[in-house]
Amino acid sequence: MKEARDILYGALLKWRLLKSTEPLLVALALGGSAYLLISSFWVAVMVFLISLSVGLWFVRPWKLTLAQICSRVDETIPTMEHSTGLILENENQLPLLSKIQRARASETLKNHQRDIRIENALVPTAGISLLVILLAWLVHALGVFQLDRNTKNISEADVVTFQTLDSTNLEILPPKIRSQEIRISYPNYTQKLDTYTTQMNLRVLEGSRISWNIVFDQSVNGVQLQMGADSLQMDGTKDSFSKSLVADYANFYAIKFEDSLGNSYVSDLFALETYKDEPPVIEMEGLPQFSSFDFEGPQKLAFTTQLKDDFGLADVAIIATVSKGSGESVKFREERLGFDTKLSSGMKEQNFRKTLNLRELKMEPGDELYFYVEAIDNKQPRPNISRTETFFTVIRDTVTNQFAVEGTLGADLMPDYFRSQRQLIIDTEKLIAEKPVIETKEYNFRSNELGFDQKALRIKYGEFMGDESEGGPVVVTEVEAATEDQLAEYTHDHDGSNEHNLVAEEHEDHDHQDHGNEGDAEDPLEAYIHNHEDPEASTLFAQSLKSKLKQAMAEMWDAELYLRLFQPEKSLPYQYKALKLIQEIKNSARIYVHRIGFDPPPIKEDKRLTGDLKEVGNYSKSETLEKEDDYQNMRKAVARLEVLLDSDLKITKADRDLFHKAGNELARKAIEEPGKYLATLQTVKWLSETEVIDAKQINNALQGLYRALPKKQVLPNSSDRYQNELNNLFIESLNVE
Amino acid sequence: MLSNLAFENKDWMLAVVLTGLLLFAVFIWKAWTGTADRRFYLQTFLGFFAILCLALLVLKPTYLQKVRKEAVLLTNGYQAETLDSLKKSNRRISVLEYAPGMDLSSTLDSIDRLLIAGHGVRDYDLWQFKQSSVSFIPEAISEGIVQLKYNQKTILGADLVVEGIYNNPVNQSKLVLQGPGGSPLDSIVFSDNQEHQFRLRTNLKAPGKFLFFVQRKDSSGTDTKTEPLPVFVEAKTPLTVLMVNEFPSFETKYLKNFLAEEGHRVIVKTKLTKQKYKYEYFNTERQPVYSLNSENLSALDLIFFDDVSLNMLSNSERTVLTEAIQQYGLGVFVQQTGNRFQVENKLGAFEVQPDTENTLKVAVGAEPLMEKYPVRFPATGLTEMAIGNYGYSKRLRQGIIGTTSLKNTYELLLDGKQAEYREIWTSLINGLRKQTQNTGAFRSESNWAFIDEPYDFSFFTSEENPVVSLGNQYRVPLLKNTVVHEEWQGRVYPREKGWHELASEQDSTTSQNFYVMEAGNWSSLTAQNTLKRNKRFFDSPVSDQKEKFLPQSIPAIWFFMGFILSMGFLWLLPKIK
Predict the structure, then answer these.
(1) How far apart are CA A687 and CA A659, in angstroms?
(2) Which residues cross the membrane (chain B) (predicted)?
(3) What was the pLDDT predicted at B267?
(4) Are residues A235 and A310 both part of a single domain?
(5) Residues of B in Cβ contact (< 8 Å) with A639
(6) Which one of A616, A639, A716 has the shortest CB-CB distance to B207?
(7) Does residue A425 contact residue A579 with C-beta atoms inside 8 Å?
């Protein structure tokens, strides 16, 4: 029993398969024709898939059921007595009669298994499909229906004309280009689709790959792509050739080939121009070049930036530099900040927004922020980077009132110990203010310490005066060091370190040199003033300065005295007086000169001015300077063309070489201005290849080359003459006068 | 009268006389009747007359007659009105059409006076009129270039300056200077139609033989006539220069760099200290110049000395140097290190005049203002010559020494004025440098010639038997000048268009290039030149002009008539009786 069922199932499967095959065939035929007509594999696949699905949806082979099979079997096999359906019924549920009938039907089915005729249209479908394919092939072969890009009509302007090089009389029809196609593949990063053109004059992005596909109407040999001075063999056989290369720089090219009889042909010259990937353009909006903020209040700097690039942006950032401090103690901190707006990579144009909060940058009064926006595009391998100009922002420092020695000097070069007097006053005032809260011992100690500092300061000034320090130099340096440490936390001033070293050196000098005569010799001011040996004979300016300094030191003495007596209140007026005097000295202290770092080499005193020439010898130098003339061959070519024009001489191999070189020289120039020189270059190129010339071509080449030559100046040159006896007699008589 | 008589068939004289005598004898014998009566004498006479007539009939006697015929020779550009008025004044005047090169000798013999109307006969035909009485009726050139001046042979980098006069230009017409191949380089538009001076200029950018063109265009821009302008541009060889300095200077440093970069052979000798020198060789081998001698001087074209080192020369060096200058034409440039122009140097002082100015607008390029020594060079004498307004040269026999008043010319380079610097030094160097000796030289009025027209040239050489050939085609016969024995004259008749070269066979470097163009080019210029020459030629009266006589034959009919009459009478005579 089971077998009959299986037969039915098998028949169903077979039916479904057959039904499916019909649309498959149709789809195959349509896809094939599409391929033949359009010559695009993907289009063909698409057509195939679409027609297949449409066909399947139309036929719906999955909708076929067993019941349909049964009725089909009943119709086709009369002996089944319309009982096929019984086979599918469950045997147990059937009445006896039906059972018998079912058994009979099963038996009949088994016997007539081969008679099951399944309705299908396979043969006509296949036939039609075949017909369609054949038709498409015919169309394709005849080239009637040319949808193909390759065989598209080449527009008039793009037609490449060839000229034969060897002879004018041709036994065969000269080969022509049947189809030309140039594919320009842009570099990957540009994400631009490849473009196709038939135009031979190209303008492409630097780094693009260019593929030429050329089909000739007859078979030719040795097709060359003559690019600049190089000849590149094109790949291919018989009539179709191709070549691809990466365009890195502007150039010229021509196509040269030989026909089957060995005649050479060369095409016109075509320009291959390249353009560069432009760096991103950054436009800043709403931002002044300089801006300043008060410390109180919001310190926010908001701006928008518009970025544009021709092929897409890769990165953008704000490069910010915070500078703290001034003079030599300036410190820089560089940060790379992002924008608030996120960059979507590869975008060609985008607006960015940023609010800079100066507080977040930990800026304090007096600090400055320099920043610029930097944008990088997606060019590969080396991206283009562009940046804006630098913008400045400062937080105003209202506290500092900088004292400048000289209006013209950028940095304050006053030695730090001049400031110590102010510091002493501050410390003294602080001590007085703290008097009620601290112990007497502590108070006295600090007062004494201040007195010591005052002494150290006095001694330092004393050095400028040439005074001896009773405390000894070693002590002074120690104290000085201590003072410096103490003062450090109040002053924030480190730029005096240079001067500090200077003082220390002076102390060392004290150690090594005789104390007896140091009064004059060691006066550090000496170098700066017009002191003519006698310290008393110094200039008026130095005199007043000196007396002021002396006065200041006297005040310091008094100040120190009261500090030592633990009476800082009384000391204060003296300190103020000393400060005032020192300020005055500062104001007239133009004598301080910025030290510059030049150390002259030591002079060997024993060699100096001896006139010893033992080690001095004759010196001889020989050099050959090649005079480079970039247009040498062009000049030669011009002269040669003129001769050719004058005579009916045949163009020789040497001439062609010369014109080839001249062409290369011109090409160098033409790359900059292709429009101006292309025609000439083409003619010269032609002359460098051909054996047949005519006067018109020579004239054109001559004209163009001569015009392209740069101006020349008369230069010293040799000259010759014939010494005529008459002239000699004349000259003789001239000299007699 | 008898001296004017001649016989055409003089050769037959003897035979005729003998035959005549014989005949006469026969006559006498025939007439002799025994008595010498009147009839006998008459017959004898008539017989003699008849035989004489017969003899003269054979001998054809001629007699000289004074020529009284006028003719007019119509040359290019004659006016029809002139011819008409001539014809009116003399109806029997004969008219001749002139063609260049035609032989006029027979015509000239037969006429008493010749009138030439038009622009005149070509100069190579003038010799035919040397002994004739000719009146020239000149006709002005109606339109075209009547004067032209340009450098036919020049050097690379120089400017080609085409100057000339255009007669009666059409208003708004243009004259265009075209380069090789015909590219326009310079042009001028004529604004009025008077005689117009023009000046076209272009830079010569390549060496070789070139054809420039002068094109006339009318106001609408259509080309009316293009005429070739052959130019021979030479590229010259570099110089050998020695620079001797007492101490290093910037001036020398920049100058030597300039020269060395241009490919000249430069040797620089700079004193470093006592007897120690720095030698620099550019584009040449090491050949230290310890002292000057005739050997190392002979290789040099120019020496730069600073005034100090020039005065430090030893006596022998000075002698050698002076010889090299005076005999061999060596050039010396004296670099001034201070205002010591007037100090007598070893070659003689420069004559200078003090000047209050310390700066000078140098007449080159953009006329830069430059520092100079407070001196001025005087107006030139016989042997002195100014170079621009900054240089000065003095001829010492064959050689030249020179100097400049400019200070620190290298500052021009630092200012980026390379062109001016080059121009100054080029003029100074080219004004002084030695000129190499040639074995011969060609000289010709121009480097043009026309097809089938004579091209005259002179060749100067001291060779005994110079041989000059035209483009390796044939040797040109030369005629020695009787006064200047170094000059040889020659004439060629070029047959083909294009460049031709005359070269000495002894020394192929001596050559003359000339361009042969088709007749008809430069017609107005040729006409003007012809006109000028004709005016000059026919202006001088012909001194040895004689009255012209022409032998005239006596018509034979007279002798025949005489013979017939006398014969007739002799026949009649017996009848009368």
Answers:
(1) 7
(2) 12-29, 41-59, 556-573
(3) 93
(4) no
(5) 206-210
(6) A639
(7) yes
Mean pLDDT of chain A: 76
End-to-end CA distance of chain B: 40
Domain at B512, CATH number: 2.60.40.10
CA A52/CA A29 separation, integer angstroms:
10
A672 at B interface, C-beta within 8 A: no
Of B238, B395, B422, the CB nearest to A718: B238
Best mutation target, B205, B258, B430, to test chain A (most A CBs within 10 A): B205
| A618:B260 CB<8 A | no
Report yes or no on A384 lying in a domain.
yes
Q: Which residues are registered as beta bridge partners of A391? A: A371
Would the CB atoms of B441 and A722 count as touching at under 8 Å? Answer: yes
* CB–CB contact A735 B461 (8 Å): no
Cβ burial, residue B385 (10 Å; 0-12/13-18/19+): middle
Domain count, chain A: 5
Domain-located, residue B116: no
| Cβ–Cβ below 8 Å for A722 and B438 | yes
Look at chain B and report how many structural domains it folds into: 4
Point out the residues of chain B with pLDDT beneath 70.
1-2, 193, 540-547, 577
Q: Is B35 exposed, middle or buried (0-12, 13-18, 19+ CB in 10 A)?
A: exposed
Claim to verify: residue A295 and residue A265 sit in the same structural domain: no
Instruction: List chain B residues with CB under 8 Å of A702.
Output: 180-182
Q: Which residues of chain A are within 8 Å of residue B157 when distances are taken between CB atoms?
A: 712-715
The chain B residue lying nearest A632, using CA atoms, is B206
pLDDT in tens, A701-716: 888 888 888 888 888 8
On whether both A512 and A579 belong to a single domain, the answer is: yes
**Same-domain check for residues B277 and B411:** yes
Last residue of a domain, one of A242, A275, A308: A275
Range of the domain at B494: 440-520
CATH code of residue A286: 2.60.40
Query: How close A732 gets to chain B, by Cα (Å)?
Result: 7
- In this structure, are A373 and A425 located in the same domain? no
Q: How far is A626 from chain B (nearest CA, A)?
A: 7
How much is the average pLDDT of A216-238? 81
Assigned domain for A409 exists: no
| CA angle (A575, A576, A582) in 5-degree steps | 90
The Cα A19–Cα A120 span in angstroms is 7
ipTM: 0.77
- In order, the DSSP letters of B56-71 are HHHH-EEEEEE---EE
Regarding whether B445 and B427 lie in a shared domain, the answer is no
Choose one of A110, A142, A174: the last residue of a domain.
Answer: A142
CB contact under 8 A, A737 and B382: yes
Could you list the residue range(s) of the whole structural domain that residue A664 is in? 632-708
Judge if B181 and B317 occupy the same domain: no
